[in-house]
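User: Batch of two.

Assistant: Item 1 of 2:
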Amino acid sequence: MRPIKLLTIDDDEHVCELIRLYAELEGYEVLAAHDGAGGLELVYDESPDMIVLDIMMPEMDGWAACERLRKDFATPVIMLSGKGESYDKLRGFELGVDDYIVKPFDPKELMARIRAVLRRTNPSLYHEEIVKLDELLFDMRHLQLTVNGENAMFAPKEIELLYFLASNRNRVFTRQQLLDQVWGFDYDGDPRTVDVHVKRIREKLRQFGIDCKVETIRGIGYKYGEGGA
């Protein structure tokens, strides 16, 4: 698979360099622009897969750049800002940004948010398109699942949750971590949503005679192991 192309638009060169260092460790190809107009030129010329966009920039700020961007592109955008007020976040989401993170930020958290946005917006880009794990064959482009050669009627979020757990075998995740990774950091629903989806996954796999390997780790969350509740 080709590397994911990440574009950072920020007038602070140190921020761009910090993001580049961490993003290249993730295997991304990284581009940078230091003003909104230059960033838009790179969007048209390079077609990035993800954009990290600062708000406070000279000449064309992040608000104006995002508004222009959304007229022609659906490229996922994470907005960076020194402003953490609810009004600014709401304005960003109304303009069509996919996530909003306040400066100063933890670059590891930013990378996690980028992964979460990509999983939601373009899972086939982030993952191999066809992946076989045990008896399960995942088609991540079309969000379809085949169990022992038979098509299985799973909801998209059930497939994404099962894929995430199965591709991280024996790693324990809390409910909140699963919400962040599968539903996204901006999801503010009930953590018991995870329990409901796990229950449905187990029931549906049982119909195929499969012992579900998603295990409950009491008091913590879930892992994909050797099977059993």
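Item 2 of 2:
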Amino acid sequence: MFRRADPEIQLKTSEEIGKMRAAGEIVARTLDELRAAVRPGISTLDLDAIAESGIRAAGAVPSFKGYHGFTGSICASVNEEVVHGIPRADRVLADGDIISIDCGAILDGWHGDSAITVAVGALAEDDRRLMEVCEESMWQGIAQLRPGKRLGDIGHAIDGYIRSQGRYGNVQEYGGHGIGTEMHMEPHVLNHGKRGRGLELVEGMCLAIEPMANLGTRHVLQLDDGWTVVTRDAERSAHFEHTVAVTAEGPRVLTARAENREKIAALGLPDPG
């Protein structure tokens, strides 16, 4: 486990956090555009084109495009696809689907990374509840990002909330991560853990908090395309993510969207700016 002073943990100044917020705002606007574009009949490749156009028009670069050979500007994961779904022309959304959209942007060398799950047309009650549980577990984890807390506190809060809500699977093979001048940095942030254990959080850390919750078991597998992760039992999955800075005032959500402000206020978190 990394110690507080470990040089592999990148700490940001307040000015650098401001630059990450600027990147995060581009991601937030892009996700708003994609949410508005989701409808039956649109392909995930169409959504990818909207994202890339919006990100580049804002003067930024898509984080995902070309990352280890990934072909999309977003990850578009439909129904039983958990994460890392590759945008495709033949993956056309239908009424009753749900889609998880993960989006990242680089602005002036700094990254923002965020994800939402969106209903396509009519939303079944089971799916609505799954999405609600997953998103709230993210906020429970975010609330732990305060100086003096530990990485284990984040995972404990996420897993504890998911477990308290019924028989949902909390995916353990994938999790959050440090972020800054690179999209994926130390430390890895588990979505399960023990309170008071792990790396101590200090001011200037920036972490992407991203739970994935399934309607069935937590077990997943990767498809032969080398990217797409699906639930092993073919049940549906939801994914939510925000990039968050650890500050003296509390967790600052750098990818916050307008719709998040009420929740941020209710949790007593600092204004994203």
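The helical segments are 14-37, 44-57, 125-142, 151-164, 261-266.
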